[in-house]
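Researcher: Please predict.
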Amino acid sequence: MKRKLQENKKKGFTLVELIVVLVILAILAALLIPALTGYIDKAKEKQVIAETRSCVMAAQTYADEKYGVSAGDLAYDEDVKVKNTTVKSQKAITDLADVEGEVTAFNVSDGKVTSLTYQDASNKSCKYESTPTGTTSDGKYDIQN
């Protein structure tokens, strides 16, 4: 009978061993979580830049369309025809770019989008400014919180 009790005692982990393992896991988690939040923030910033880039392309499309027809520049808050419906230019841009946020300002000069400000659904905004003609860059994108 005594032999059976001794055999049962040898199985499993002690409380101290379990606590040591949990402490090690907690330390690893504490080191990992700040690194992951940094990656999440960077991903959100890149998403806002990508959405801004889509809006710039959409604005350029409308500017090219208008410039080709009337040799005029697209203006902020101007009426634009989209699928036989008249909408404001910033609404047309976000619809064409297929983004959730809104274009809060943009400028077009000589048929080229020179600046555009986009604000996403989480209130992060990004400002685009074009570079001088002849440079290889497609413009400058600045994130503003």
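Model: The longest strand covers residues 102-109.
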